[in-house]
Amino acid sequence: MCGLGRGILASIREVAKLANVSPATVSRVMNGTAKVDADKRERVLKAISETGFVPNEVARSLFKKSAKTIGLIVPSIDNPFFTQLASVIERTADEHGYRILLCNTGNMVEKEKTMIQMLTSMNADGIIITTSNEEIRDYIDACNIPIVITDRRMKKLMKCDYVHCDHYEGGKIAARHLIECGCKNIVCINGPQDVSSAKARYEGYSDVCKELHIKEQCMDCDYDFEVGLAVTEELLEKYPEVDGIIACNDMVAISVYKVLHKRGIKVPEQVQLIGFDDVQLARLLTPELTTIAQPIDEIGKKAAELIINKGECNADKQEYIFKGQLVVRETTNNKKEELHEKTRNS
Amino acid sequence: MCGLGRGILASIREVAKLANVSPATVSRVMNGTAKVDADKRERVLKAISETGFVPNEVARSLFKKSAKTIGLIVPSIDNPFFTQLASVIERTADEHGYRILLCNTGNMVEKEKTMIQMLTSMNADGIIITTSNEEIRDYIDACNIPIVITDRRMKKLMKCDYVHCDHYEGGKIAARHLIECGCKNIVCINGPQDVSSAKARYEGYSDVCKELHIKEQCMDCDYDFEVGLAVTEELLEKYPEVDGIIACNDMVAISVYKVLHKRGIKVPEQVQLIGFDDVQLARLLTPELTTIAQPIDEIGKKAAELIINKGECNADKQEYIFKGQLVVRETTNNKKEELHEKTRNS
DNA sequence: ATACCTTTTGAAACCCGTTTCAAGATAGTT
DNA sequence: AACTATCTTGAAACGGGTTTCAAAAGGTAT
Hints:
The structure is a homodimer. Chain A is of the alpha/beta class. Helices cover 46% and strands 15% of the residues of chain A. In chain A, strand 8 (244-246), helix 11 (250-262) and strand 9 (272-277) form a beta-alpha-beta unit. The relative contact order of chain A is 0.11. Mean pLDDT of chain A is 92; it is low at 1-7 and 337-346. Chain A binds a DNA duplex through helix 1, helix 2 and helix 4.
């Protein structure tokens, strides 16, 4: 039918021969880069459909120095936050005719370096990376494609764009919310402090404590479900009177909930709980999780667009900061929420 | 330091000039494709490190007709099953020096076609796709790279490998488990019946019903959380005496649980619930979800390896079928599980 | 020292779509 | 009719790493 027989194997020179024109003319017909005589155009179109010719993207990419590809480097695909980010980025990219090359570092710094080099050598049009590792500075400087750092921030800014949420403010909002909900004994479960977002969230919490002369109570944790379980057990040993927990992200908040539930501790009656990110999970859980939502869709879209529209204002690199938003659900005691519950149930 | 200054911009010809050898020799040093005089080798290595030369993957790919890339086409990245599959595939690929090009079809058939063409024209080394759409036959035939179809199956087998779970048997196991747990009034929430896996699961359930002379009770649903909520509401209208629900996947099982919970229906005391897949979610939920586990890691690994080792036995295409496994957790009443609970709590 | 074989090496072709550049063709002007 | 301006078109170069092939170099045997 549509000539798929030999299909993709045909080359532009074969098509040209069949249409009795030059390869240049075929190229012009395909890309509309110049006017072509109506007769010849027809012959070319016919030859293309007969052979099922699909131009080789690699050859095109070699010449154009653009693979119409965005490299996406994340610490962990399994983390639902990055999954959702990847999803938005893929959608945005696809809308603009770009593809996504997905790279998972598994939090290994060396991999970040080799992946940046690899993506550059593949003529990727840009890289979106989540890292706060200062060591990659040289690699970012060396590769001459636009780089966007998402979700995190370097101490010293590099020559790349930053797209992230105001995690410091998010930390403050979370702390204040628990206090407003009546918590007297808050414990903050921190994410890894070499990760800028985790550190900023902690600092937000910490500054609220200082402001209100509350004693800081923290636990160290990773962005990981299993670690979250263990840390929560420890937490309950160390702070048996806890009545409010700030978890470093939603995944860990779920760990916390599971441990509390197993021990028969009621949420939010006995302990209130707040997470970060507002990944889809947060709504699936029962009770639904109160959390500081990141505008993941906006972050991903912005990051992708910065690369796609790189021509626009590549002069000075910028920092785009989005606001996190408190989403009150069922793991904290909020008066408004209770009111809302009542109207819904009536 | 390591010559990242001009870095990646250098070409093999520049390196050759600097080392006073031919580009061919540089290539040979880099790839170890032939012996090179020790002197020259040293000069080349020095020139490479001075220029920070990284070979252009696109040029290499053009000649070799291999981009060391696997295309991954999934219906929806947001679906945790595919996320986990992507994660394993990425890991396996990375171990073998391959990259992943991630494509999301959003269940749009046309996109499958263009993405297969696109990946082929990018010299991808193979494609892993989840589809049961017979229309793509021509496209699969036309592209001369190995294709692996995961999770689903075509009515008429095409010339590609199949890697999937025995969904039919899974459906049977789920039905039998609920019956063994004492359910008298089971309703099966079916996934879209044009998707082979959903259909097979239904048929498994159906055959158990026939075998035991139980009346079939089904609802139509999609693999979607929101749709799941609505369908569950309908289900409770239509079958108020239901005491066991088979959900088409874990995500829908969670929808079901949420609706039951909101209505004050106790799980598993009043209604027992089983899902499919055993995505990470299933363990995060409270109560933890009983489900038919797919060996996602094995499926993904096998699929990736089939492409990476395509040289091995590309002669006749094969079908690799894995067994699903019942994982009893907290949404069904299993005696063994109760026993286990008791020992754990004592 | 000569003939012969093996190994190392570089020039050039190759992969294939795009673009440049100049020639050829058409249209328009005087 | 002669000439200029404009458009269409194909040959050839390009991008950059790889491989082929034949020449050059090194080594061995006679």
